[in-house]
Write a structure and sequence with these properties.
- The protein contains four helices and four strands, in the order αβαβαββα.
- It is an alpha+beta fold and 89 residues long.
């Protein structure tokens, strides 16, 4: 993952983190910004630890799309979904 973060920093690609616990996301954000000074995080969301409803998934997809992050893939429920199918791009 570090290589992905370093590449995003080098290419000035803002990211959006989805999943994990709020505490883990806060820690991840702090460590990344400490170690990669030009790393840009446009948002993060700790999704519920349960099946999300279709409405919840649509609302979160809208948040990601409107964040400006350079999202290429969205990780939901342990699966990688192509942005074109899950984010309505």
């Amino acid at each position: 993952m570090r290589q992905c973060y370093e590449r995003a920093e080098r290419l000035s690609l803002p990211v959006y983190f989805h999943g994990s616990t709020p505490a883990s996301l806060i820690l991840l954000e702090a460590r990344l910004q400490e170690n990669l000074q030009n790393f840009v995080i446009y948002g993060c969301y700790s999704s519920p630890f349960r099946e999300m409803s279709a409405d919840e998934e649509r609302a979160e997809a809208q948040c990601i799309n409107s964040s400006g992050a350079a999202a290429r893939q969205l990780y939901i429920k342990g699966q990688v979904k192509d942005k074109s199918s899950s984010l309505g791009a």
